[in-house]
Structure to design on (376 residues):
């Protein structure tokens, strides 16, 4: 079976795990500091502060707290997004306001967002869906106009560039995920990027039980035994072994990103002429693609999936729209007609780092075969 996701675990990651275990300091320590410094270098800016945490979802939770979002506040978010974003909004007691996405880019539709702003709106979450980045200049202007904080969920766009600027270098608050299937995995991990030292200090407290012990001590594989706690905190820090694996992955970011780009371009080339298939409308320049998705007629999607599965090709669905889940079906929302359609058409094909082009060809051939035999 050709899987949808396949982690790039090689000798470097195995060595890194072993070394971190041999170090014997299993919690947050020196590897976490190195991981943060390396991410900072990749972001390439000195006016941002990077903190590693346990998951992307934890990073989103912390981001909402840093943005001052709480009970009674509204957060505008695309319904076409990951459940993690909706859960995090729930964790801070705020209300979800579902926005539609754009039919071409699949990014949050800013014109529709304009209709959803209310006196309670405190923040907007903008997520880069895979290989086409959001209109970040438009988002910044929107946020300024309405006095909102922006949380940039860049779980799909680590290592990508927006108008030549590295993702993470320009947002109000930016969040990455390094979970098992993301382009750069730490097994599990997340990163939050903030703009001020005060916000970083707050993030450090939030990620480690509210403890005010300086991270600099733990980064030397030691701990302060006395410190104060002033506020509620969580157990969201990153572990040394996770950071060590992440560092091994960061060392290969170029090959991860170029091989995924190459596979995505090849898919586009092979699939773009099938009348029933809509491929991403991009040349993938400057992005590190997380998914490769296509859109197919809604009434054929599940049949195609079953047929591919029968022939050894697994596929995924990113995502079922948020407003269709029981928990979120009554949330405030604008018109979601594009999201409803996209949710039924979207299909993720296998995409791996260092993927062989013959595997891309095999998947594409099967999709050709399905549509050429006049599938039902
Ligand atoms: C993966 C993902 C998350 C959650 O990150 P985890 O590290 O799995 O907690 C959030 N948002 C998006 C868009 C994601 O793809």
């Amino acid at each position: 079976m050709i899987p949808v996701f396949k982690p790039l675990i090689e000798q470097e990651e195995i060595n890194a795990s072993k070394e971190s275990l041999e170090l014997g300091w299993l919690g947050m320590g020196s590897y976490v500091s190195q991981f943060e410094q390396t991410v900072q270098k990749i972001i390439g800016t000195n006016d941002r502060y990077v903190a590693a945490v346990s998951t992307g979802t934890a990073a989103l939770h912390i981001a909402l707290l840093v943005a001052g979002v709480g009970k009674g506040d509204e957060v505008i978010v695309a319904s076409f997004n990951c459940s993690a974003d909706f859960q995090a909004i729930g964790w801070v007691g705020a209300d979800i306001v579902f926005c539609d996405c754009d039919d071409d880019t699949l990014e949050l539709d800013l014109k529709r967002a304009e209709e959803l702003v209310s006196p309670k709106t405190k923040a907007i979450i903008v997520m880069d869906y895979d290989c086409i980045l959001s209109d970040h200049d438009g988002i910044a202007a929107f946020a300024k106009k309405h006095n909102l904080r922006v949380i940039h969920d860049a779980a799909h766009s680590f290592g990508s560039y927006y108008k030549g600027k590295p993702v993470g270098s320009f947002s109000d608050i930016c969040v990455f995920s390094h979970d098992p299937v993301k382009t750069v995995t730490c097994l599990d991990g997340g990163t939050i990027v903030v703009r001020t030292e005060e916000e970083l200090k707050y993030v450090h407290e939030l990620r480690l039980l509210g403890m005010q012990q300086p991270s600099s001590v733990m980064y030397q594989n030691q701990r302060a035994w006395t410190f104060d706690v002033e506020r509620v905190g969580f157990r969201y820090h990153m572990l040394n072994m996770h950071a060590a694996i992440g560092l091994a992955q960061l060392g290969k970011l170029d090959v991860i990103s170029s091989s995924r780009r190459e596979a995505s371009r090849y898919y586009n080339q092979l699939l773009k002429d099938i009348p029933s298939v809509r491929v991403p409308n991009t040349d993938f320049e400057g992005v590190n693609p997380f998914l490769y998705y296509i859109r197919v007629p809604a009434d054929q999607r599940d049949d195609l999936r079953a047929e591919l599965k029968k022939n050894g090709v697994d596929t995924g669905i990113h995502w079922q729209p948020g407003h269709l889940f029981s928990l979120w079906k009554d949330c405030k929302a604008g018109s979601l007609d594009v999201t409803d359609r996209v949710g039924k058409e979207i299909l993720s094909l296998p995409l791996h780092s260092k993927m062989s082009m013959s595997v891309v060809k095999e998947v594409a051939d099967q999709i050709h075969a399905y549509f050429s035999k006049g599938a039902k």
